[in-house]
């Protein structure tokens, strides 16, 4: 390296010695800038640290006026240093003063310097500060010099991230790396959670970044890359993997990145500059992340996730660590933070220790959101870059009601939320006092409130809430959390436990709703262009009758001596229901023939989720004993808006004329046929929506356990006949301007209905 004394390896070795010295943080920084200036033969070396107020403070300098340390503060929109921080990219200039963003600060005395090289101090792609060298003479900094300064900046990043510099800061001007953050997202599940971050796929923390033996580190890197490539190749060669589809596309992208020569070259160059193998991976990934986070192309931002995953795999390979967090070491008040996760992954945690869930992705009707609501876990989704901003152990507040997250909250915010938690506890006590009160409106209309459930952990909620029963038991959750297909004996045990817990109260079991985005880990996934519209639920069951028959047999045996209610999901045509009901009759005959005890009565129903069934209501009601409206899927299909796609999931309001007219069609058809109708989607869990459903004629709702109290409180204050007078004319309005939600909210406010 031209002009350098000993090169980057010598610099890193000396930096390690300085880092190990028992000196103050300021003395350490002062020694570091002197060391860098001498090694790079630069007249100036300065360290600027990004503060909580998003300004840059001069923390140490060699060559500028030392009185300016902790006095010079720049905006990120000001000067060359601000440019480097803002763009998170290195900037090398032979004539800095000719650059349009050059800013002169007289207290530093920097006007005499011509050449400028600034590199961002990055960690996980986030800017923590800027490292600068300057020379009086005009010179062109070489790629090797830029590389050396970037490598040195990585060491400074760990020093800043450790919190060592906090003691040097004035109150309110602490380093931004540990700054409190108030982040907006989308509410996935109501509730408040105060706790500490647990990263679902934790970043591997690299602590040893300076190499002792460069040749050994090169061998370690090459060996780890080889193992990584072999593992990806092995996954792609797996006979159980579909030959085409999204899963294979993802793995093919992984393989492409793992064999990318540019990526490999950058990591090897970083090792040759004096970093350990894991330090090189961290350095290259942080640089790449910083660039891609600022890209406007959504494809590039999506590839960022692939690169993050691949870098973490490589780091775990280097350090010999298993993927995922240590679930045994889960804190008592865990906030799970992830890019996204499946319901099975969430259920894999000890649910008694989870206080909240925060996702970078995730929509309000995604299945992990539904499970979070069932478990009473406050959840927020669509929080941008949360996995890069949060570290394991960071304090965090999850406000599921407002869709907000407070990362590393200040004391006053934490105390305010602690009081909010106490207030919610008092309100829950008020709801608990309603537990034994019948769910009857002010004008005498009884609306039965049932629970949505799917796990043994849900069963105590029946007694706790005073619910009328279980209106939807999602049987697939048992299958999703199992490592192998549950045997009939295992299914039988669960179904009996559910019926025992319910006692005399009815339980409606939904047969397996798998396929689409609900993939069983032990079943071969079938890749489809539109999985929500594809081979799932009753379609899969009828095509694999052995699977459906084994479940029906377990249900019938579990219901021996009592009433049993079974319903089939995703029914699109009466012929499907006829075929499914025939399987029930066949299994009844089989059990009767072999001397098994049978249920007293078997009620067989269908879920109204597919719009085609809206035009076969009289036919299906002539065959079925009851219907249940699955509002999540019905709304999704009505508006052709994928509920897992955050761009469109919330585009259409279920309290709109189209959706409410569809719901009314089902309620009126049930009334004509004298058959019970229940709405069991997430819609019933919101008081305002429950008000609308009662006005449409629904007398049975199934909702999440946490929603029973608020919905019952609203119904107790509701006059259904008055609500109908407001709602029904709006449904007949053909102008296209009816504002139903606003009108119902105004009605609730005037009449004192708490929504």
Automatic annotation (TrEMBL):
Q: Name one GO molecular function term.
A: phosphoenolpyruvate-protein phosphotransferase activity
Catalysed reactions listed for this entry: L-histidyl-[protein] + phosphoenolpyruvate = N(pros)-phospho-L-histidyl-[protein] + pyruvate
A Pfam match is: PEP-utilizers
- What are the subcellular locations of this protein? Cytoplasm
Q: Which Gene3D superfamilies match?
A: 3.30.450.40, Phosphoenolpyruvate-binding domains (3.20.20.60), Phosphohistidine domain (3.50.30.10), PtsI, HPr-binding domain (1.10.274.10)
Its needed co-factors are:
Mg(2+)
InterPro entries associated with the record? GAF, GAF-like_dom_sf, PEP-util_enz_mobile_dom, PEP-utilizing_PTS_enzyme, PEP_util_C, PEP_util_CS, Phosphohistidine_dom_sf, PTS_EI-like
**Which EC numbers characterise this protein's activity in its record?**
2.7.3.9
Read off the SMART domains from this record: GAF
**Key words, A-Z:** Cytoplasm, Kinase, Magnesium, Metal-binding, Phosphotransferase system, Sugar transport, Transferase, Transport
Coarse class of the primary localization is: cytoplasm
Domain GAF, first and last residues per copy: 24-170
Q: Which SUPFAM superfamilies match?
A: Enzyme I of the PEP:sugar phosphotransferase system HPr-binding (sub)domain, GAF domain-like, Phosphoenolpyruvate/pyruvate domain, Phosphohistidine domain
- Family label: Belongs to the PEP-utilizing enzyme family.
**What name does UniProt use for this protein?**
phosphoenolpyruvate--protein phosphotransferase
Q: In which organism is this protein found? A: Xanthobacter agilis
């Amino acid at each position: 390296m031209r002009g350098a004394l000993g090169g980057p390896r010598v610099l890193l070795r000396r930096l390690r010695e300085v880092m190990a010295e028992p000196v103050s943080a300021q003395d350490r920084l002062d020694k570091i800038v002197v060391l860098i200036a001498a090694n790079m033969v630069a007249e100036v070396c300065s360290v600027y640290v990004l503060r909580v107020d998003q300004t840059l403070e001069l923390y140490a300098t060699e060559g500028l006026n030392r009185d300016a340390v902790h006095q010079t503060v720049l905006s990120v929109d000001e000067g060359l240093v601000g440019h480097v921080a803002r763009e998170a990219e290195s900037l090398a200039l032979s004539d800095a003063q000719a650059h349009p963003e050059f800013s002169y600060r007289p207290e530093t005395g920097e006007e005499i310097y011509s050449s400028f090289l600034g590199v961002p101090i990055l960690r996980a792609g986030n800017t923590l500060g800027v490292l600068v060298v300057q020379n009086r003479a005009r010179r062109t900094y070489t790629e090797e010099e830029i590389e050396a300064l970037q490598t040195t900046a990585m060491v400074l990043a760990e020093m800043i991230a450790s919190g060592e510099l906090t003691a040097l800061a004035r109150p309110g001007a602490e380093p931004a790396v540990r700054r409190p953050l108030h982040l907006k997202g989308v509410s996935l599940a109501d509730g408040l959670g105060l706790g500490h971050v647990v990263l679902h796929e934790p970043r591997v923390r690299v602590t040893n970044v300076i190499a002792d033996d460069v040749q050994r580190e090169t061998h370690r890197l090459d060996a780890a890359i080889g193992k990584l490539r072999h593992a990806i190749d092995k996954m792609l060669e797996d006979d159980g993997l579909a030959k085409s589809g999204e899963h294979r596309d993802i793995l093919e992208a992984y393989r492409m990145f793992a064999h990318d020569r540019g990526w490999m070259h950058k990591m090897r160059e970083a090792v040759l500059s004096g970093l350990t193998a894991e330090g090189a991976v961290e350095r290259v990934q942080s640089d790449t992340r910083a660039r891609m986070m600022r890209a406007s192309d959504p494809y590039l931002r999506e590839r960022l996730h692939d690169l993050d995953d691949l870098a973490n795999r490589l780091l775990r390979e280097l350090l010999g660590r298993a993927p995922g967090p240590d679930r045994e070491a889960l804190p008592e008040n865990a906030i799970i933070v992830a890019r996204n996760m499946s319901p099975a992954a969430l259920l894999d945690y000890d649910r008694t220790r989870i206080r909240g869930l925060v996702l970078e992705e995730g929509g309000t009707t995604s299945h992990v959101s539904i499970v979070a609501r069932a478990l009473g876990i406050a959840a927020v989704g669509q929080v941008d870059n949360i996995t890069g901003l949060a570290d394991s152990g960071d304090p965090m507040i999850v406000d599921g009601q407002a869709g907000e997250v407070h990362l590393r909250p200040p004391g006053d915010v934490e105390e305010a939320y602690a009081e909010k938690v106490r207030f919610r506890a008092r309100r829950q006590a008020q709801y608990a006092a309603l537990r034994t009160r019948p769910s009857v409106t002010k004008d005498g209309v009884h609306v039965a409130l049932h629970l949505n459930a799917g796990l043994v952990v849900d069963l105590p909620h029946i007694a706790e809430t005073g619910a009328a029963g279980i209106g939807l038991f999602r049987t697939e959750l048992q299958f999703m959390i199992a490592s192998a297909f549950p045997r009939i004996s295992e299914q039988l045990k669960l179904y009996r436990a559910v019926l025992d817990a319910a006692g005399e109260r009815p339980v409606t079991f939904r047969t397996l709703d798998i396929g689409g985005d609900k993939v069983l880990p032990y079943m071969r996934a079938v890749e489809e262009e539109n999985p929500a519209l594809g081979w799932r639920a009753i379609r899969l069951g009828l095509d694999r009758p052995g699977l459906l028959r084994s479940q029906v047999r377990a249900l019938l045996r579990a219901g021996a001596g009592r009433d049993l209610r079974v319903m089939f999901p995703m029914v699109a045509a009466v012929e499907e229901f006829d075929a499914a009901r025939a399987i029930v009759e066949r299994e009844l005959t089989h059990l009767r023939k072999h001397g098994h005890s049978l249920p007293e009565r078997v009620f067989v129903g269908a879920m109204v989720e597919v719009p085609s069934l809206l035009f076969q209501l009289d036919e299906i009601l002539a065959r079925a004993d009851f219907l249940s409206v699955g509002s999540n899927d019905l709304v999704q299909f009505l508006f052709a808006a994928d509920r897992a796609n955050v761009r469109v999931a919330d585009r259409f309001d279920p309290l709109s004329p189209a959706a409410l007219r569809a719901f009314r069609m089902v309620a009126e058809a049930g009334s004509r046929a004298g058959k019970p109708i229940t709405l069991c989607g997430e819609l019933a869990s919101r008081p305002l929506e429950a008000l609308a459903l009662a006005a449409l004629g629904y007398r049975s709702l199934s909702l999440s356990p946490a929603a029973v109290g608020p919905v019952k409180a609203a119904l107790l204050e509701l006059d259904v006949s008055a609500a109908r007078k407001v709602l029904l004319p709006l449904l007949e309005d053909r102008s296209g301007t009816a504002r139903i939600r606003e009108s119902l909210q105004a009605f609730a406010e005037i009449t004192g209905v708490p929504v």
